[in-house]
Design brief:
This protein has 354 residues and is α/β, with parallel strands linked by helices. The chain contains 13 helices and 9 strands. The structure holds S-adenosylmethionine. The site of S-adenosylmethionine has 24 residues, from strand 1, helix 3 and strand 3.
Length: 354
């Protein structure tokens, strides 16, 4: 059964009534076609009695379709104050089921708006909590990276279980997110998304369906957090290994791995290859999730032994200076120890210097 709203002005009439011209510099492109907004809402799954958070509702097309379901509570978060009066019309019609937050989603702590009673243990099915949004592309990509980190740490909306996400992205970005091993679009984003979530590209919306139309097509993507990530290491470590491996996605991994370590320690790259048994001439886009996991295991064990390796960044001159000072200190310590007690355990000294 679908909920009926009292008669309301159409989205187009709200735009005219409140003079809501899309701001090009904010990449505002609106969906006025209620068949498409319904399709986005349906792709989020069953919302009956659920808690839904919509990010960037704008003039409220998706919001309306959400309110037509039997959801229990909808919270919308909109940065541009001009949209608040139009959204208030919808909130009034929704009779207590909708709340408006005027704010920036990149600064919001969503866990504070989610009711505790919808929480589920992580290992259960997803809780009846849904995050939905058609945001500008320059917001949706940094937002998903932030949310993936929260999924990995089970914080924010993921304190409540494996909360699902349904978001729009530029079609090419969505294709990279779902790209499998050996695919042309396989990149760091593919590994970061697939490591933590089951991810589905639901459907494509042609750019011309928006007002004003963007130059690109748009994809609706759903993310369902996995019970266990495919790579069992902290988000930052996985992100670093992926960043280095995919910096030049066509280069052999023996070269990309080498950038994880100072140039005067080639033995560490050799260790990464020997321990994992991965062919040194494999290119990044050919690496499976299992290969990525093996590289992260070995990198982690190197960093446990030599902790400053985790901070090493070959592109930051300050960091390299710091690393060199540590190397000088290590060399001095080693010389001292060899002179004093004949100990030559290089790695023991390295880990103490970190
Ligand atoms: N969802 C509406 C639709 O489909 O017609 C509007 C889409 S428009 C592409 C993006 C909306 O997100 C705009 O209303 C914009 O003001 C809002 N927005 C942009 N950045 C935001 C942010 N950081 N936090 C919350 N809302 C944001």
């Amino acid at each position: 059964m679908r909920m009926r709203l009292p008669p309301l002005p159409t989205v187009g009439e709200i735009i005219r009534l409140y003079r809501l011209r899309a701001k090009k510099h904010l990449s505002q492109n609106f969906l006025l076609d209620l068949n498409l907004t319904k399709k986005i809402v349906c792709s989020a799954g069953k919302l009956d009695n659920g808690f839904v958070c919509e990010v960037g509702p704008g003039p409220g097309g998706i919001t309306r379709s959400l309110l037509e379901t039997n959801l229990r509570q909808l919270v919308v978060i909109e940065k541009d104050r001009r949209f608040v009066p139009g959204l208030q019309l919808l909130a009034d019609a929704a009779e207590g089921r909708m709340a408006i937050v005027h704010g920036d989603i990149l600064l919001c702590d969503l866990s504070s708006v989610i009711p505790q009673d919808v929480a589920r243990p992580w290992e259960d099915n997803s809780p009846n909590i849904h995050l939905i949004g058609n945001l500008p592309f320059n917001v949706s990509t940094p937002l998903i990276i932030r949310w993936l980190e929260e999924i990995s740490n089970k914080t924010g909306p993921w304190k409540f279980g494996r909360t699902k996400l349904t978001l729009t992205f530029q079609k090419e970005v969505a294709e990279r997110m779902v790209a499998r091993t050996l695919s042309k679009q396989r990149c760091r984003l593919s590994v970061m998304c697939q490591n933590l979530c089951d991810i589905h590209l639901k459907f494509i919306i042609p750019g011309k369906a928006f007002v004003p139309p963007p130059k690109v097509d748009v994809a609706v993507v759903q993310f369902i957090p996995r019970v266990k990530p495919m790579i069992n290491h902290p988000f930052k470590l996985v992100e670093k290994v992926c960043r280095h491996l995919f910096h030049f996605r066509n280069k052999h991994c023996k070269h990309t791995l080498a950038t994880l370590f100072p140039p005067d320690m080639p033995e560490l790259t050799a260790e990464m290859l020997e321990e994992t048994g991965i062919n040194p001439e494999t290119r990044s886009y050919m690496l499976s999730m299992g290969d990525m996991s093996k590289f992260c295991d070995t990198y982690r064990s190197i960093c446990d032994r030599i902790p400053f390796m985790l901070e090493y960044n070959y592109r930051d001159p300050e960091n390299i200076k710091k690393y060199h000072n540590k190397r000088i200190m290590v060399t001095e310590m080693l010389e001292d120890r060899i002179l004093n007690d004949g100990i030559t355990d290089d790695e023991d000294v390295l880990s103490k210097a970190s």
